[in-house]
Design a protein that fits this description.
Elements: H1 13-23, H2 32-43, H3 54-69, H4 75-78, E1 83-89, E2 93-98, E3 101-104, H5 112-125, E4 136-140, E5 146-150, E6 160-164, H6 173-179, H7 184-196, E7 200-204, H8 210-218, E8 227-231, E9 244-248, H9 262-269, E10 276-279, H10 287-294, E11 302-306, H11 310-324, H12 329-339, E12 342-348, E13 354-366, E14 369-383, E15 389-395, H13 403-407
Parallel strand pairs: 7-11, 7-12, 8-9, 8-10, 10-11
Antiparallel strand pairs: 1-2, 1-6, 2-3, 4-5, 5-6, 12-13, 13-14, 14-15
Helix pairs in contact: 1-2, 2-3, 10-12, 11-12
């Protein structure tokens, strides 16, 4: 990591790190300055650190500090705003996503212990735990980055750490329009539907931009409304909502005690007089509680889920509901058709850019099946010389259910696009 000094002796980074940790008070509230002071004292010890060059000593100082108080060698990647994902596969390899492409990084962790210490630092900040009894954990960093950890005995090639990063500056709908992720016409349409209180579900694959799009849609929620968010790991960045309540699930102890699940938080939220409920993502049996919340007068609620298409999203929701409750399939479908007004489906196309691929109305039931009406579809028109995907989001139908638009003061869909974002 640090190279050899002028005397040819390779520094034992882990031994230096351990010595600094032993010199610090484990039970005290240690400041960054105290950590740096301990590092500096060690670096002045010529027997332990026989460096001659100032540049080498400063580099080692930074590396030691990052390993103790930040994310070790990963801090360099965290300081690079163009890195959007970091994937640590044990101590042997680190991959990163940058500018839409994945590449292997030239650095690696020197030992499993150093990597595990970084992981424990991360999960400890959010009052979570990860160990052999509970080897999988979700957490977040102070900047809002999403963290997922898998440890032994589940992970066979060492501790696995995945960090999904979000832009420091919140992305707006105007940004998405300029990126080509959504057309202005569709954006204006969605803006009015959010204001009017349509329940919108955002679907898409991993890394398709569901959380970002949910954040963007939340910009259009009227400021006077009370909004409650429910997440496994808090990462939503809802802006300019004075009456906002944020709830986060809690993992239990190794015996499973004292856990707080998404289902419990949805039920608690219903007692807090919400106007809208935002469920960060549904993954399991909490889907039934989400649908019931959407169906009990909380118009304008939002949620996201993993799926390959709007129809696939409904199939997955059916399965999730049946995981938590034994009720007839037709009853499940009626709940879904009543709760969800619109599905916005996102995806990554060939050039790795994120786009709105479809906007679909959930138009009730017909012969026991949920009726889906496509409103917008992305039309792929090939690629240009640089490999950038060409195409546009084209209108394919008109909204049938206009009651909420009329109640909010908009006479019909034709007036939507005369508004401005």
């Amino acid at each position: 990591m640090t190279g050899k000094d002028s005397r040819g002796k390779e520094p034992d980074f882990e031994a230096l790190r351990s010595e600094i940790m032993n010199a610090l008070d484990p039970g005290g509230d240690i400041s960054d300055q105290e950590v740096l002071a301990a590092i500096d004292r060690l670096l002045l010890d010529r027997e332990k650190v026989p460096y001659q060059g100032l540049a080498r000593r400063l580099r080692l100082r930074t590396e030691l500090f990052n390993s103790l108080r930040r994310l070790g060698i990963l801090q360099e990647l965290m300081d690079d705003p163009s890195v959007t994902e970091i994937m640590v596969n044990g101590t042997e390899s680190i991959f990163l996503e940058k500018d839409g492409s994945i590449r292997k990084w030239h650095k690696r962790f020197e030992s499993v212990k150093i990597l595990e210490d970084v992981i424990q630092q991360i999960v400890g900040r959010t009052n979570r735990r990860v160990n052999e009894a509970a080897p999988i954990a979700d957490a977040r960093l102070e900047d809002g980055s999403r963290v997922h950890v898998v440890m032994a005995p589940v992970a066979l090639n060492g501790p696995i750490l995945t960090i999904r990063r979000f832009p420091k500056k919140a992305i707006s709908m105007e940004d998405l329009i300029s990126f080509g992720s959504v057309s202005r016409e569709c954006a204006l349409f969605l803006q009015q539907l959010v204001k009017a209180g349509y329940n919108i579900f955002i679907s898409g694959g991993t890394g398709s931009g569901k959380t970002t799009f949910l954040n963007v849609l939340s910009e259009f929620i009227p400021k006077e409304e009370r909004v409650i968010t429910i997440e496994d790991s808090a990462e939503l960045q809802l802006k300019n909502l004075p009456n906002l309540v944020r709830l986060e699930t809690r993992a239990g102890d190794p015996e499973g005690n004292h856990a707080l699940t998404t289902r419990q938080l949805i039920r608690a939220a219903l007692r807090m007089r919400p106007d809208r409920i935002v469920v960060g993502e549904v993954r399991g049996s909490e889907a039934i509680d989400m649908l019931q919340a959407f169906n009990t007068g909380h118009d304008g609620s939002l949620s996201t889920g993993h799926a390959n298409s709007p129809a696939d999203m409904l199939s997955r929701l059916e399965t999730m509901v049946l995981m938590g409750m034994e009720i007839p399939l037709e009853a499940v479908r009626r709940q879904m058709a009543s709760a969800i007004d619109l599905i916005v489906h996102l995806g990554r196309v060939r050039d790795k850019s994120r786009k709105v691929l479809a906007v679909t109305e959930v138009a009730g039931m017909e012969q026991g099946e949920i009726r889906l009406l496509p409103l917008y579809q992305f039309a792929d028109q090939g690629t240009d010389e640089s490999g950038r995907v060409l195409g546009s989001l084209q209108k394919t139908g008109s909204l049938r259910q206009l009651e909420k638009l009329k109640a909010s003061g908009i006479a019909g869909e034709g007036e939507i696009c005369h508004e401005t974002i």
